[in-house]
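Co-fold these.
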Amino acid sequence: MLVRRHEDRAWRISARVASLLPVAGVAFIVIVLALKAWPATTVNGVSFLTSSQWVPGNTYGAVVHTHGVAHPMGSSYGAWPLIAGTLETSVIALVIALPISLGTAFALTERLPRWVAQPITFFVEILAGIPSVIIGLWGVLQLGPFLASHVYPLVANHVPNVPVLRFFRGSTGYGEGLLTSGLILGLMIVPIIASTTRDLFMQVPPLPKEGAEALGMTDAEVARHVTIPWVRSGIIGATVLGLGRALGETIAVAMVSGSILGKLSPNIYGTMTTIAATIVSQLDSAATDGTGFAISTLAEAGLLLAVIAIVVNLAARTIVRHSASHAAPVGRV
Amino acid sequence: MDEFRKTDISPDEIKSVLEVLDPDGERPRNVITTSGLNLRFGDQQILSGVNMDFPRGTITALIGPTGSGKSTFLRTLNRMNDKVRGFRHEGDVALEGRSIWSSDQDLLDLRRRVGMLFQRPNPFPMSIKDNVVAGAKAHGIAKGKQLDVVAETRLREVGLWDAVKDRLNDSPYRLSGGQQQLLCLARALAVGPEVLLLDEPTSALDPLSTESVERLLRELTPALTLIVVTHNLGQARRVSDNTMFFYEGKLVEHGATNDLFNQPRETNTARYVNGLMG
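Predicted complex below.
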């Protein structure tokens, strides 16, 4: 008896400790980042969010002090192009991945016979497991150049010269840039959203769907009015998972974005960079800054990325709560 | 209503007058006719040789033990079985003389004309009002402000209006089971069907809700033709004009409900209606 009671006690304590680990992990990461970023934050100020300059200064020359923080002469950092690039690539990725994922999930659960659906499911899962460096390599060697020589010019020359759409015109470059990055990211998050959505669709009970069919709705109407709304909050959750991946994806974007610092891309094809890609591509040269200021600035960028990810997550939760309070299944059929 | 009963016009005379006045008089008397209908799933024969007429404006009850094929028969009438793997049919089902499988019979329009109510309430994940008008909207029967009218009319028709008029934009899943089923009935009526197929519509409901659904079904005729699968023999007796008894994949016996229950011709029918066989 005593042994069992001790076992139970050990089990309960270890479960509690384990449940605290994620909290501790998040707190630890944020605290370390904030401490590292603190010097840069005091010097860079608010203009870090709005400025486009990314000048490390003369890292072998004189050291100056601003607000008591040492940094190289002439250094000036602004992350606006990084922020914009991160959001732009993620939005492009979502716009591409969401319909493809929903379509895939829908076809896998409703349309395709099992002998076709099973291998496709397998490949979707394989795609999720391909290391991003390999996808990036394929993007920079094959996909980017192909699109730049065959597809982008076609689009750029046929889009009307009107506001918003103008962003799709102009020089199409060599395949490294905003759209290629967005496409690569889209490809990487399709498996995340598609496999989650597929599992969600399979949980939708047949009875409401049959009700819609019996009412004379088309398959598309059944999907739009019943299947998708039934699991709407889950789809939003899956989308946020995908978005989180897109926001933070580093190496593949570093490879296909062109990694151009200091300016925004003038159109959707131009070279650019993101926060994550900048951190990885600038880490080496930042280490040469003897004052540690460049590293501190990268930490500040990292903190910014973490904040963006958390804000996106919270926003999604609000959307889920809103849509759930409207008419989502509470007492499911 | 009592005033009418006191008149000395015989029912037959009323009937003949009604037939003259009936705008549907020109149309076939039988809304649905099945001829030599065999149904199979793969190698398994579910139902064989069903010949049956469903006269306009009547309620027909489909009774029989579980697995006798009555639900499959019902779901064939609006082609819900068509997408089930291995479903095969021989013989024919005609809606007003035209085969439901003929190439000029649009499936969506067939389902608009032949509606369905299921075993358990199945509201859509949208507001109460949107539920009622979902089908009407899809078929382009009404739009904009008209949808409000459709919603109110149909909710009144099923007696749900007073209970939900102040929460039309709420979730339907907070309604009771009986109210949800009435909502589904309002939704089915909103597309203007001619036939309503009901698959054990009250099996998940409490006795009071069952009573209100049954009362409604009687009120829906003769404007609509109803075909009801039920395990509740009392319900079959209470609501239906005609009854079909299915047993082991065959239509054993059919006829006027009173006759079938009081003077069954077949032994199995007698055993079933007297509760000697489940």
